[in-house]
Specification:
Strand order of the largest sheet: 4-3-2-1-6-7-5
Radius of gyration: 22 Å
Strand content: 25-35%
Distance between the termini: 76 Å
Number of strands: 7
Helix content: 25-40%
Shape: globular
Oligomer: single chain
């Protein structure tokens, strides 16, 4: 009888410990930083948009470039009241490109969490989640800093790429 009680206690303890671990592993990991690089031409005009802790947007302009380091200077900052949904941060690939266009709308998206940084590259490619992120940023910043992204034109260009 005593052995049976020990086994039951062990099983209960094991169940409690593993259930907490499973719950923690299913928690949504919110990014601490979402950075969108808008690679403009010429390259020195690159602009970086950072959504920091889902409560502010900071815009940086590239000020210096050499072979080892790129420096940016903040040119605009604002607090935001709305939140970007984590559903738009899901991407199947790390590179999306239209092979028929050499130059144009080039972006790099960097999503940083406590555990990892994920970088996704977009080269003249229409992507619904990228469009939502750009729209979110544009809705929270002045017009002079807004990002140009014509998804309908990119869809047409990709369709005609055969």
């Amino acid at each position: 009888m005593k052995n049976l009680q020990r086994i039951i206690c062990f099983l209960l303890l094991f169940t409690l410990l593993t259930s907490e671990t499973c719950e923690e592993s299913h928690k949504e990991v919110l990014p601490s930083s979402i950075i969108l690089y808008n690679h403009l031409r010429p390259a020195l005009n690159e602009i970086k948009y950072e959504i920091k802790n889902n409560d502010s947007i900071i815009i940086y302009k590239r000020i210096k470039s050499n072979t080892t380091d790129i420096e940016f200077d903040a040119i605009y900052s604002t607090a935001i009241n709305s939140k970007i949904g984590t559903d738009v941060l899901s991407f199947d690939n790390i590179t999306y490109e239209n092979p028929c266009i050499q130059d144009g709308e080039l972006f790099t998206l960097s999503i940083r969490t406590e555990k990892e940084t994920k970088e996704i590259s977009f080269q003249n490619y229409p992507n619904e989640n990228l469009a939502k992120i750009i729209s979110f940023i544009n809705n929270n910043i002045p017009e002079r800093y807004q990002i140009y992204y014509n998804m309908e034109r990119l869809k047409l260009q990709l369709k005609n790429c055969n």
